[in-house]
Structures are given as structure tokens and as C-alpha cells.
Amino acid sequence: MTQIERLNDLIAKWKAYRVSLPESSRYCQIKDDLYQVRNAGWEGNPSIGSWQPDLIDPDDSMMAAVEHYFLCRCWVGTGVYPAWQMRALNFVYDMGKLVGITPQHNPNKPTSKLTALQMAAKEAGVRDGEDDLAKSGKSAPWIASPPKYY
Fold first, then answer.
1. Are 122 and 90 in contact (CB under 8 A)?
2. CB–CB of 29/18 below 8 Å?
3. What is the distance between the alpha carbons of residues 144 and 81, in angstroms, rounded to a whole number?
4. What is the CA radius of gyration of the chain?
């Protein structure tokens, strides 16, 4: 299985895992779930063993790509950020990773290595989020305050 196939497989499995939720909140819940998965056992997050094994890949960079897909889809799809701003935030975040200054959320775990797969997953999340926002009939602000990483 290629990395793209594995990414798409995990995205599909996470969507199926949360299929009972309305689409308007599903992707944000998955984003939150994946944050817990990637920070398992830290600050009250469930252990990795409490998640279905088929939802987890041992490669943290793969899990980062999946998490970032759903983060972008959630934030753009619910109108938290306009798509153009999400792309700009992603660029700044990625460049920070590239030069080693992007802050880590979990002090016990460094940020994942920047990969082309993560960058592609974020862009796919933005595009799918644009579709979600259009379907909802809602709109995003022209610009929003950036998220805090500290």
C-alpha cells in the first residue's frame, strides 16, 4: 500500500468510526480524537490502547497527516478560518517546522517531521472543507485571529 493509499484508508476509517455524528460536527470531533491519539496518555488523554487498532498507524508522520487533514477540514468547513487564511497558516507552520521553530504542543513529544504527504493532506482538508462550508450555506470571516500554539 502506498502512503497516499494508507492516508486515504485511515481517513475513510476515521469517517466510518464517527459516522453517527452529523457531518457538521463529525470532522471537528475526529480532529479532537486524533489530537488525543497523537498525545495518548498525556494530560488525561486516553492511552493508545483505548482506540481501535485499525485507526492507528505506528508512523507518527502518517498520523500527523491524518490529523492535519481533519483539522483543516474542520476549521475551513465550519467557517473558523477562510480557506486562503488556512493555506497561509499552513505555510507558516510548515516553514517553521522546516527550520525547527514550530512549537510543540506536548513537551514530551517533538513535532512530527514535515512531509509532502502532510502538506498534501492539509490541502485536501482545505478543499474538502471549502465544499463542506458551501454545502452548509454558512460563510467564513474574511480573516480570523490565528490559533495559539502556547
1. yes
2. yes
3. 6
4. 15
pTM, entire model? 0.96
How many residues in total does the chain contain? 150
How far, in Å, CA of 101 to CA of 92, rounded? 10
Classify residue 32 by burial, with Cβ atoms within 10 Å: 0-12, 13-18, 19+: middle
- Three cell numbers, residue 106: 506536548
In the chain, where does DSSP find H-type helix? 3-17, 23-38, 60-77, 83-99, 116-136
Burial class (CB in 10 A: 0-12, 13-18, 19+), 47: exposed
Which tens digits make up the pLDDT trace of 18-40?
999 999 899 999 999 999 999 99
pLDDT in tens, 52-111: 999 999 999 999 999 999 999 999 999 999 999 999 999 999 999 999 998 888 888 888
Give the Cα separation of 97 and 77 in Å (integer): 25
User: What secondary structure letter does DSSP report for 133?
Assistant: H
